[in-house]
Amino acid sequence: MRDTTEGGEFLLRALDGRLPGARDHADATASYAFASAAQLGLERDVCLAVREAARLHEVGKLYVPAMLLARPASELSPQQLERVESHAPAGARLARGAGMPEQACEWILHSGQRFDSGVELPLPSRIIAAACAYDSLLREQAGTGGAAHRWALIGVIEGAGGRLDPMVVDGLARVVERAAGAVGPPAG
Question: Which of 3.20.20.80, 3.60.20.40, 1.10.3210.10, 3.40.50.620 would CATH assign to domain 6-179?
Answer without folding.
Answer: 1.10.3210.10
